[in-house]
Amino acid sequence: DIARRLRGASGIDESQARQLSERGKAIVAITANIHSTEIGSSQTALEIAYRLATDDSAETQQMLDNAILLLVPSLNPDGQVLVCDWYEKGLGTPLEGGRLPWLYHPYAGHDNNRDWYMLNLVETRNVTRFLYQEWFPQALYDQHEMGMRGPRLFVPPYFDPINPNVHPLIWRQIAVAGSEVAERLEEERRSGVVSSASYDGWRPGDMDTTPWWHNVAALITEAASVRIASPVFVKKEELVGELRGLPAYTAQMNFPNPWPGGWWRLRDIVDYELTAALGFLQSCARRKTDLLLDSWRMNHDAIERGRTEAPYAFVLPWRSSDVWTLGRLIDLLLAAGVEVHRASAPFAADGVSYPAGTCVVLMAQPLRPYAKDLLEVQRYPDRRVYPGGPPEPPYDEAGWTLPFKMGLGVVAVQQRFDARLEQLTSVRLPKGEIVGARGIPVATGGLNAAGAAVAVALSPDGNAVTIAVNRLLKAGAEVAWSDEPIQGGGVSLPRHSYVVRMDAKGAAAMAKAIEDLPLTAYAVPAIPNGRRLAAPRVGLYQPWGGIPDEGWTRWVFDQFELPYKTLHNENIRRDDLARSFDVIILPSMGAREIISGEASVQGSPTLPAPYAGGLWSEGASKLAEFVRAGGTLVALDAASDFAIQELGLPVKNVLADRRPREFFCPGSILQVDVDARHFLTAGFGPTADIFFLQSPAFDLAPALESQAAVPLAVYTARQPLR
Fold first, then answer.
1. By the 8 A CB rule, do 434 and 523 touch?
2. Crossing angle, helix 323-335 and helix 464-474, to 10 degrees?
3. Is the pLDDT of residue 489 over 90?
4. Hey, is 568 helix, strand or coil?
5. Predicted confidence (pLDDT) at residue 473 exceeds the cutoff of 80
6. Residue 159 near residue 244, CB atoms below 8 Å
7. Which residues pair with 31 in a beta bridge?
8. CA geometry: angle 291, 294, 297, nearest 5 deg
9. What pLDDT is attached to residue 605?
10. Beta strands 153-154 and 67-72: pairing type?
11. How far is CA 38 from the centre of its chain?
């Protein structure tokens, strides 16, 4: 209750906050094993619990008296079981400690630690609720592992840059706790501890970084890995530094005691992480009053800044074309604890009028840093490895503005305004409906006899329509794409709108499709010309070893109810693809990896039969044969190089050999101009925002015989960086 009140901050002055802080306990979370192959932390968790339960020293008693520990032994326990079971099968073989044949999180794999602001995964949602709506910790420590041939343990402070929305107290708290952890490690003669290197303070989205924007002091450690649980021997001459913060593996201010090399074991990881965890908990317990009071200070400051600085709010206007996606944005904000309001009457802000029902995110709230950071545009600083040298990459993404990524129009309000607002506790989406040709509602959830129409039309520019069309096709309804815009009777819909024949089957399927989707369908007197749609027969390539992009693609298909079949190497090499599939999709992975199956150059295979290898030349030939027979091959991002290479396409990836000094675009949002004439671009409008992560960019070569490449989108002639 004290933590909740200090987090809310409103109505509590500093004197009251101090009294609560002196009475309260620091709530501290220690989380482990989100990456299931980083097995040391789940083992460490057992020893943390045992130490606190059995040790009767004054130091441990202080921890128990002053802090409440939320200990999560594994943030991905299913994956932990998969990894351990596979590891045990490989013991005593050349494959001991090798990679798993599949993703250890069914959708995200390693990317399960990239979802903490989108909240797409069940696990992310559960832990978000646990942290930010139930317990309100003031401090968090997340344990990870990194490469084998560098320092033994990274401990914050972090490397630059820092995000301007994070309260400065967060960095100070992290510096204090991190320094006390590092000191304790040195006291126990644990060498090889580095700080202020590699990992920066720029991006939310990780388990250990998102808390900063919730005014929670959170830090990670990154321990040098072993081969799951098998020891490794690292020679002194094999030890290397980091691009950022440790240019050479030698003693310096942030790395005063280099590890000399030798055997490195799971037991070493556990020892280092146990020392770090107890040091962190001791620091929090000793400073518990300061942590609690600082929690109030940061939350209070966020409210005050929201009252006195622009932007004062973000307005989230409902657009009839894509209210479903706006609902997703509001839902993920609410799930993270952000206060979202709904206008109960029309209002004006910055001279723009908005109707009742418009949603507003006021900046005068404790989670101002979080809401502002997700809704505004990021400007990553121009940092160089050395003056005049190549650009220094961020640890992760440079930009993540959610309205851009989700195709939404969100407005930052720069002047104070008045509005009658009510706070939301859940998302309220409008009901789907079918309206008559003059825009008059005929029925909600179906058509009555008086309003019977030959067909209804749906605009393609909302995400929910994709779900509806997949449901309609599954139900056997007749659906077509209109060749031309649909005009008349008050209706104006773009080319390639969906048209559904309202016979008995179509009417029943349409009524069911809009039961829980906020769609507006328009009755039309005739079915326009257009291609008849059928449920596509989709094959999704799933390489052994697991590729997160394949998992995320499956997640998208499952969310949007698109049927598909998983294809492995043997399916592509053996099956008659043209007989079974209309479309085959290759997830983002390099051409060599698609062909050979090896994620990196290694002397021996990392997977045993039947999981070893890739498509080989036989599988590549079968995909080419599939395309020649009329099939469609979709190559996502990096897989484009495979398609260009194996199919001899009249296209060149102009970025394939560019060095960072020549072209640099890490994890950024770019804008493209879209050719709206093509059915594949239906719903995008004239421009679209795309996420670019070490991606290809294409130049068109002269046409081969009768084949010419058709660009559906091109980077804007003006600055494409959003």
1. yes
2. 110
3. no
4. coil
5. yes
6. yes
7. 72, 142
8. 160
9. 59
10. unpaired
11. 20
